[in-house]
Amino acid sequence: MKKIITTSKAPAPIGPYSQAILNGNTLYTSGQIAINPTSGELVTDDIKKEAEQVMQNLKAILDEVEMTFENVIKTTIFLSDMNNFSKVNEVYGSYFNEDTAPARETVAVAALPKFVNVEISVIAVK
After folding, report:
1. Bridge partner residues of 27 (DSSP)
2. Rounded to a whole number, what is the largest CA-CA distance in the chain?
3. Domain ranges of the chain
4. Which of 27, 32, 91, 105 has CB 3.0 to 4.6 Å from 124, enough for a Cys bridge?
5. Can you give the pLDDT at residue 1?
6. What's this protein's family per the entry (predicted)?
7. d(CA 12, CA 48)
8. What number does CATH give the domain 2-125?
9. pLDDT at 95
10. Rounded CA gap, 39 and 10, in Å?
């Protein structure tokens, strides 16, 4: 059964979508960008800080359903510039154990919502 997941500790959706959907034991997050949920401001002045905010937003959603990054089985990373890959990967990698890291794809795109540099979504299972 589909359950809408919402937390004030992650940015509110900016369109007709949910922060996440829990279906059974599987969580599907919407792509998160670097919006600070407290201030509503974008964090785009430094790619590492931007990636950190994205990961913190994902963490808040995982926390809402009592999951951690250990529960993540798949991630998708969208980058507006593949030259940012290594810096984003460094931040991203700090959230996962390399031995149990999820499957992942990283793709470069022409543009992202609000013209951010990175967007990440995850699928997690309890």
Report:
1. 22, 124
2. 41
3. 2-125
4. 27
5. 87
6. Belongs to the RutC family.
7. 22
8. 3.30.1330.40
9. 98
10. 11
| φ, ψ for residue 125, nearest 5 deg | -130, 135
CA-CA distances (angstroms) from residue 29 to 9, 90, 97?
Answer: 14, 21, 20
Q: What's the CA gap between 72 and 48, in Å, rounded?
A: 21
Dump pLDDT digits (tens) for 108-125.
999 999 999 999 999 999
Of residues 59 and 14, which shows the higher confidence score?
59
Q: What is the pLDDT of residues 32-89, one digit of tens each?
A: 999 999 999 999 999 999 999 999 999 999 999 999 999 999 999 999 999 999 999 9
Amino acid identity of 76?
A: T
Burial degree of 72 (CB within 10 A; 0-12, 13-18, 19+): buried
| DSSP sequence for 12-80 | PPSSSS-SEEEETTEEEEPPB-SB-TTT--B--SSHHHHHHHHHHHHHHHHHHTT--GGGEEEEEEEES
